[in-house]
Amino acid sequence: MDILPDHLTLPKLMQNRRFSMRPVNFDHLADKLRNWGRWGEADQRGALNHIGPETLRNAAAEVRHGKLFNLGLRFDRNGPQLGRKRFNPMVYATDLFTQMGPGAAPGVCFSDDVIHMPLQCSTQWDALGHVHYDGQLYNGCNARECITENGALKMGINHLAAPGIVSRGVLVDVARLKRLERLPLDYAITADDLNAACEKQGISVGTGDILLVHTGHMLRFTADGDRDSFMGMQPGLSYTCAEWAYEKSLAAIAADNMAVEILDAESTGSEMPLPFHMLALRDMGLPLGEMFNLEALAADCAADGRYSFLLAAPPLEVTGGFGSPVNPQALK
Fold it and tell me: Checking DSSP bridges between strand 252-255 and strand 288-290, what pairing results, if any?
C-alpha cells in the first residue's frame, strides 16, 4: 500500500511469514463503529461534528497559564522521510534581492520562494478520503467516483480545514505510564492502557476532545537522528482502541509516530493492513494526526499535572487533498 513508506515493502515486513486474514473481530467492530449517516448523508467532517460551541468554550477555559507549545516538526530537507513518493520538503528561492519596482530606491528589494513537498511528509492530518476498503469511503461514498488523479471529489482535507480543527486536547502519556522514555517498537497500546493513563493522570476524556498519544517514538528521529528506526516498525494504538475512541465520542486522534497505530509484520501484512486507519477514517470518520512532536508538552504535563489544553491544529484548505501539513499548537 502506498500509505506505507517506500522502504517498508511487504516482503521485508513479512520476513517470509504467511499473510494472515483480517484481524479478529474487525468486521464486527466496523459494523458497530460505523458513523455513516449519523450527521447526514452529505456529511464530510465525520467525528469533528462532535466539536460544538460548548466544547469550544470548554477548550478555551483550559488556558490558564499562557504556556504555548509547538507540536509540529520542521518542514525542510532534513525531515523524517526516506522514500521517493513521500520525500522531504524542498524549498527554492524564486527571487533574491529583486528590486521592488522601477521607481524603488536602490537596495529596496524582496525575496520569494516556493516549496515542493508531499502533503503528508511531516506533521500532518489524514483526510477522510485517504484510505478505504470494499470500494467505499466514509459515509458510503463510492471510491471509484470520488477518488481521482486530481484529488478527492469528496472527503478531501478541505472539509476538515473549514472551519478548522480546534478543540480541547487531552494528552495520554503511555510511555510514562510504563515508566519508559519510549515504548518498545513492538508495543501495541490497548484500551486498558488508555484507561490506566487517564486514571493515573487524573483526566477524563469527553465528547469532542482530541486525543494526543505520547509513545516517545519521536525521540528516535529528533534525539537519535535515526530515520530508518522512526519510519520503520513502531509502537502505536491497537486497532481495538477504535471502540474506545467511539465510546468517548472523540473528535480526532493524533500521535507522535508515523502511523498513529502500531506498525508490525502482523498488522501490515494482514488482509486488512493498518486496520486502525480503516476503522477510524473509513468507518468512523475520525481524522488522524501523524508525527506530532509531543515531547515538550508531555514533559510540562508531567511537571504541572495538567494534561488538558486548548489545541489549535487546522489543516491547509487544499481542495481535494488526501492529507495536509499542520503546525499544531497547544496552549495551557
Answer: parallel
State whether 277 and 320 are in the same domain.
yes
Instruction: Take residue 91 and report the three cell numbers written for it.
Output: 524549498
Q: Residues 123, 328: contact at Cβ < 8 Å? A: yes
User: Each residue of 205-253: pLDDT tens digit?
Assistant: 999 999 999 999 999 999 999 999 999 999 999 999 999 999 999 999 9
Yes or no: say if 289 and 283 are a contact pair by the CB < 8 Å rule: no
Angle, vertex CA 55, rays to CA 29 and CA 324, nearest 5:
65
Region of residue 270 (phi > 0: left; psi between -120 and 50: alpha; otherwise: beta): beta
Domain contains 139: yes
Residue 230 lies in a domain: yes
Rounded CA gap, 9 and 234, in Å?
A: 15
Distance CA 325, CA 313 (A): 10
Q: What is the number of other CB atoms lying within 10 angstroms of the CB of residue 314?
A: 18
Contact 217, 182 (CB under 8 A): yes
Structural domain harbouring 92: 87-117
Identify whether residues 174 and 237 lie together within a single domain.
yes
Residues of the chain short of pLDDT 70, as ranges, are 1-20
Q: Examine the domain organization and report whether 251 and 284 are in the same domain.
A: yes
C-alpha span between 274 and 68 (Å, rounded): 33
pLDDT at position 47 is 98
Are residue 125 and residue 263 in the same domain, yes or no?
Answer: yes
Residue 4 lies inside a defined structural domain of this protein: no
What number of helices (H) and strands (E) belong to the chain?
A: 13, 15
